[in-house]
Amino acid sequence: MLLLVLDILSRSIMKNVIRFAIFILLMPSLGGASVNRAEKIYFSNKNISNRSEAVTYELMRSKYYFSASIFAKERLIEDKPLDERFEEALTTLILKTGTSTFMPLNEQILGKHKSQAMSFILGVKQFHKKRYKSAVKALNNVKRGHRFAPEKYMMTGSSLNFLGQYSEATKAYKNCMRTSEVSAASANHEKLKRYYDILAESCLIHMARMEYKRNDYKKAVQSYQDIPKTSYRWPSLLLEKAWGNYYLEDYNRTLGLLVTYKSPLLRSYFYPEAEVLTALTYFRLCLYDDSLKTIEQYHEVYKSRSDQLKSILVKYKRSHTFFLKMMMQPIEKLEKKNPFIRNLMTQTRKKIKFNLDLANYKKVSNEYKYLKTKKQTPFIKKLREAVGRSKDWQTRHLNHYIKKEMFDFLNDVHKYSYEMFNIKLEIMFKKRDLLYKNKNLISDRGRGSLENVKRTQKEHFYDFNGAFWADELGDYSFGLKSNCEEVKVKREGGV
Amino acid sequence: MKISFVIVSIFFLMMAARAEGPKNKGNIVYKYKKYESFDLGNLEVKGDIIAPGDLSVQERQRTKMERGLLERKDFDQEVRQDIKNLR
Fold first, then answer.
1. Interchain pair A422, B82: CB under 8 A
2. Chain B partners of A212 at a C-beta cutoff of 8 Å?
3. Using CA atoms, how far apart are residues A175 and A149, in angstroms rounded to an integer?
4. Does residue A154 lie within any of the structural domains?
5. How far away is chain B from the Cα of A457, in angstroms, using its nearest Cα?
6. What is the mean pLDDT of the segment spanning B16-43?
7. For residue A87, what are the domain limits?
8. What number of C-beta contacts closer than 8 Å exist between A and B?
9. What's the pLDDT score for residue B19?
10. Which residue among A183, A448, B11, B70 is buried most deeply as judged by most CB within 10 Å?
């Protein structure tokens, strides 16, 4: 029986190996034919009306997408109107190479042809430049049935949100959710389906954030609750939900949400801001000792480790490849360097942007590798130089992305350290005030029957269940009573 | 000429008289009382009492130092970041 299973397994493995080998062997030759055709068209003396367009199609046929985008950009500079086939080709090129390929084109060229794909790129560009009105105008050219419709609605909603047009923004976000769901249902690949699911969730999150901004915390918290726990974005939203509950003065719920980050399942999610919010919530409950304990732990945990991390990062801050190489290393190796590095890398690896950029980086590297194997002609030289520049840019871009994530974390540690200091000062002020007024808080642990009780911050969640349960994550709530009532100090001897 | 001679003579005579003056008076000795007592109880001051009789400190409001603790007004930065995460 065992031998039979092994035989079946080895056969299926062999089949796959053979298929892969055939693919590897045939790929350059298949591609080579259309690259040769593209070269012939490019140097042809015949009067070809759409030379750039024809070269683009030939290169796309052999899946040289980064090379094809060079000629697609040349075609866009021309004044002749675009046809439907080229419009479709532009959409495919954006999907295969990313929006950054066409971003360097100026706004005049992007808006010249009234192309839906280029209007989308123009919208992205205007949004990044914080020109929200122009972004909305450009994005309006993208129709509801287009491949980029979910992204269009998401950006339109965010632009209108920043312009203060909230009801229109809500409409756009709702359209984003609907179109994303439709696209997810018709997606062929699991990864694509997941991408559209994340888009739909992102639009719901944006709506919650908009409600939060308008001080409608109750509605915002309700919207956050609609995000399923299985979502990739759910762990990072606990903090936002906790802020919503904080402003609703539901401090126990705030603490319950924040304590979720201590669960072993969410080990790689750590936010300095969450620690500050914990200290702040204890402060609002007048539990000054707990607040001080949180501040002390923050300095113990974050300060020393962030200093270590800084010493490693600063050494390579000018490198264009170090962080990318580090990301490619196995997790065990990273863990040895610094506990924060491993967790930061895990957080970055889970980000959509990073995964999309990494996929593009791999694609451009492969294309460059194929071009290097080809005989050097003026045409191939042109392609190699342009794709080489693209590869170099993608490498730097990815490296910069990881580096920024890490330095942002370091800056956050310092920024929130200042906030912790402010809370500490406020506690000292409150304690001094009580002393001057000859008063104590109602259950001051420094006296009475609680004098011998040593309560650390961690004991809070042991008091609740004794352990974290995956299905309970995010649903915890503390049961602490506010300690803000003041009582007169009773002196010994009955005076 | 005569008049001027008379004036100069008078001037010199006056100077001589002034120089000889104090020698004739001798040393002046000032004497003070060695002990003097005042009976404050018997002193009577006429007028009205304005100040309060007992020692008091006027109460004043303590200055409250309001420190700007962390606030989260919006998540706009995160919204922008999400848009950057699009393909």
1. no
2. 74-75
3. 9
4. no
5. 21
6. 74
7. 1-102
8. 70
9. 61
10. A183
Q: Is residue A98 part of a domain?
A: yes
Whether residue B70 has pLDDT greater than 60: yes
Q: Is B71 on the interface with A (CB under 8 A)?
A: no
Chain B residues whose CB is inside 8 A of the A126 CB are none
A236-274 tens-digit pLDDT: 899 999 999 999 998 988 998 998 888 888 877 888 999
Buried b (16+ CB within 10 A) or exposed e, A87-116: bebbbebbebbbbbbbeebeeebbbbbebb
Query: pLDDT tens across A431-458, in order?
Result: 888 888 887 887 655 433 444 333 444 3
Residue A161: list chain B partners with CB under 8 A.
Answer: 79
Q: What does pLDDT average to in each consecutive run of 10 residues of chain A (495 residues)? A: 45 50 46 76 75 91 92 91 93 92 92 92 95 96 94 96 96 96 91 90 96 95 89 90 94 89 82 94 92 93 82 86 85 70 82 85 92 88 93 92 89 92 92 84 53 40 54 71 76 51
In a domain, A52, yes or no: yes
Cβ neighbours for A207, distance < 8 A, ≥ 6 positions apart: A157, A170, A173, A174, A223
Domain count, chain A: 1
Instruction: Check B85 against A209: CB less than 8 A apart.
Output: no
What pLDDT is recorded for position A11? Answer: 52
User: Which long-range contacts (C-beta less than 8 Å, at least 24 apart) are formed by A138-144?
Assistant: A138/A111, A141/A114, A141/A116, A142/A116, A143/A116, A144/A175, A144/A179
| Chosen from A95, A146, A195, A243 to mutate, greatest number of chain B CBs within 10 A | A243
Percent of chain B with pLDDT over 70: 71
> In this complex, do A209 and B79 lie within 8 Å of one another by their Cβ atoms?
yes
**B85 is written with which tokens?**
């995460």
Residue numbers in B near A155 (CB within 8 A): 83, 86
Per-residue pLDDT, A31: 55
Would A63 be classed as within a structural domain?
yes
Q: How far apart are the first and last CA of chain B?
A: 127
Question: A276, B70: Cβ pair inside 8 Å?
Answer: yes
pLDDT tens digits, A177-222: 999 999 999 988 888 898 899 999 999 999 999 999 999 999 999 9
pLDDT at B23 over 60: no
Nearest residue in B to A100, CA atom: B87
